[in-house]
Amino acid sequence: MGYPRIRLFLTHRLALLAGAESLRSIREGLLWLLPCLLVSAVMLILAQCAQALGAPGSLVELLTGLHNRLSSIIPLLVAASIGYMLALQYRLPQLPVAFLCLSHVVIAIFLMRDYPLAAATFVLFIAIASPLLNVPLMAWLHRWRWTRLVDEDLVGQNLKGTINMVLPGVLTSLMLVVVLQLLLQVHDVAYVQRPLDIDSLEHPYLNAILLTSSNSLLWFFGIHGTHAMQPLMDVMEQAVALNAAEQAAGQPARHALNSGLLGCFAFIGGSGGSLALVLAILGFSRNRSMRLLALASLALSLFNVNELLLFGLPIILNPRLLVPFMLVPMVNVCLALLVVQLGWVGPALVSVPFTSPVLLNAYLSTQGDWGAVLLQVALLGVGTLIYSPYVRSLQRQGEGADQVYLKTFDTTFRALEERGRLFELDPMVASYKQAAQQSLQLARIQQLSEYDFHLEYQPQVVKDSGLCNGCEALIRARDRDGQVRSPWELLQWLGQAGLMPEVDFWVATQAVRQQQAWSRIGFELPITINISSATLASAEHGRRLLEILARAHGRVSVEITEDALVGDALLTQQWIGKLHALGARLYIDDFGTGFSALSYLHQFPVDGIKIDRSFVLALREPKGAQVLNGLLRFCETLKLKVVVEGVETREQLDFLESSSELTIQGWYYSKALPGEQIPGFVSQLARNALAPSEE
Description:
Blueprint: H1 2-18, H2 21-31, H3 34-52, H4 57-90, H5 94-111, H6 116-142, H7 157-163, H8 166-184, H9 187-190, H10 204-220, H11 225-228, H12 230-248, H13 259-266, H14 274-284, H15 288-301, H16 307-312, H17 322-341, H18 360-365, H19 370-395, E1 403-406, E2 411-414, H20 421-425, H21 434-448, E3 452-462, E4 468-478, E5 484-485, H22 487-496, H23 500-520, E6 527-531, H24 533-536, H25 539-549, E7 556-561, H26 569-581, E8 586-591, H27 597-603, E9 608-611, H28 613-617, H29 622-638, E10 641-645, H30 650-655, E11 662-665, H31 678-694
Parallel strand pairs: 4-6, 6-7, 7-8, 8-9, 9-10, 10-11
Antiparallel strand pairs: 1-2, 3-4, 3-11, 4-5
Helix pairs in contact: 1-21, 2-4, 3-4, 4-5, 4-6, 5-6, 5-8, 6-8, 10-17, 13-17, 14-15, 14-19, 17-19, 21-22, 23-25, 25-26
């Protein structure tokens, strides 16, 4: 049991992390950028194609310029979209908050204008992180009356919301200026240092792992890896140039690790070796939305452009894909280094644009080595195999991975399928905690699957005669340590999971078996069971329940709460008629605590009511006593069988007076007992009742 428990714990924690409101807001906000990202990527691909086809330089320059301009506004759009989503979460005016988050990025760009390397490294990160900090701060400031510039009754809601965001916006902007100015005083922040130089490439495997893992980790948090590691990439470019110079001088190329090897073999399809992810989705996933996204990303991934996957799947801040996203390029680069060092494939001698098509880039970078093309194909296969179990895991999120078998009830709990569908249809759905809540539900059901459920029976005693005339079946649960657990919370969990019909069928079956077991020893005592509204709401469930009760020949009756009568009145009346045809009775449980109960007494042919223990507990108050007395007189008039629950003291028992037969259920006579103890209790009660007359 150890491994499943650990796996469940990790899955639960992962779902809580993935379903965190801030991460959900980021991913949903980034999703809105896909059209702009796609347009930018197309412009870059067209520019590369135009250059390869020898088109006029002005056309290449135009397309490249459009790509650069679109790329430059991506951080602004990121901040605005995330700010919008967080404004929904914090109930702030959406567009004013979105524009304030956009202005924060503009402030950051301006403050870092003299530090181009720091700007290239940190601006996108600031665009993502700034709304996470500033929007909650704005929400906190917005709650203070002194930050509101407009009274509620003076202007319309839109104008009021906009103007009242002015002071929170100004204060958060000033705080951002102060924080960035202080950070820029730190030399390592303002001037991003180059942690490696050409001489340190003597340890290629270690450096390759550090480079690829850092790039993937940066992208995972929304930081452009190539920009953030530009100093390191400059060293990688220098290594290619040295290889070419050494080759021209007739010397062996010494630098197997270089930008050509990274671009052609580590990042096949873009950061994370994401072309392998596309192939894994197409090969191993049956999820229609994932396959459509993979097909849309396939053409772009062939040009090493993977923003569609990064923001659309998404990969950014998706903890379920972090491991393969880091592992694939690390494995790719190590295998490529090994093959190059063995001499099976030549080293990269020419720098090619990062967006050069897959396969062609390997051929050009190695100056026509077909072995490089074969190596790329092999690495694609390796990457696909690494991604495949994670793709299957994503596929199983709404399927078998969320199934738990409950041995007692002989049923299987299946979690909601396509849990992301709500967000796919409407990214502004308020329930950001969907995945985490469902994971918690799964954890609870997993816990319940280890319990042993059983029934106990609480006797019902006629007040005047002191004889037992029935009992109620009550569900109990025993955990793996043998401790008996309270059923109320457990039943609530089962109800939330939609499993109450299965519970009702099991209770009915166990009660019928107990009645039959008593009959075999010559003992007869009517049993009542509680049935949930979920069972009566379905004609199929109601039919199945009647089939079970029919085996008791009327000795097992039913209690339902008032909410079970709220649904389809005709269906309920038909079901009650069939129940009476079996010889069984119907009681309304917890009478007077639910809906308009009096109307049900003439609408449905009920046989009796059970007065809730809350009325008995209220006897200590004068009005409480009057209400209970009125209920008893009312039932006398309607000639209803009455069972009073929760009687625990002699004082409570003595108060209960009725001209009709009054049945008492409570600890005054007995708590719930195992089925095998009921015959002995009933016999002892009968002896006690007869004892005075024998004297």
